């Protein structure tokens, strides 16, 4: 088989294969989730929810005397939620809260959202029965 014949056969075959793969990919990934399955319903988080999720996944602290969490507070704030044992020094609680605020600023800047994200603080002592 000559090179010219090979090109005339292989080139259309390659294009056909690419078109077939693109069609199959579109068909597989464009199917809508089954409506009867609650876990398969589409959901898009708000930017605030996404930021809180990212912060909680990356910076949550649950060890020692202080716990740090991030909670969305609509319409535009993240609550830096610090829980601590009653015997924890106030300076340690403040240090963790400020560290949490730095994390919020860092993540908001990464997404280009610094211009609208506000930071609130909530500090709570952990009741003795939970310790």
Describe the structure.
The protein is of the alpha+beta class. It folds into two domains: 3-36; 47-130, Alpha-Beta Plaits (2-Layer Sandwich), CATH 3.30.70. It contains three helices and four strands. The chain has a four-stranded mixed β-sheet with strand order 1-2-3-4. Helix 2 crosses helix 3. It is elongated. 15% of the residues are buried.
What is the overall silhouette?
A: elongated
How much is the radius of gyration in Å? 26 Å
CATH class category of the largest domain: Alpha Beta
Domain count: the total is: 2
Helix percentage range: 40-55%
Return the structural class. alpha+beta
| Share of residues in strands | 15-25%
Assign the CATH architecture of the largest domain: 2-Layer Sandwich
Distance between the termini: 81 Å
Uncertain runs with pLDDT below 50, 5 residues or more?
Answer: none
**How does the major sheet shape up?**
4 strands, mixed
Helix and strand run:
HHEEEHE
Question: Strand arrangement, largest sheet?
Answer: 1-2-3-4
Q: Looking at CATH, which topology of the largest domain would you report?
A: Alpha-Beta Plaits
Total count of strands = 4
Average pLDDT works out at 84
Helical run tally: 3
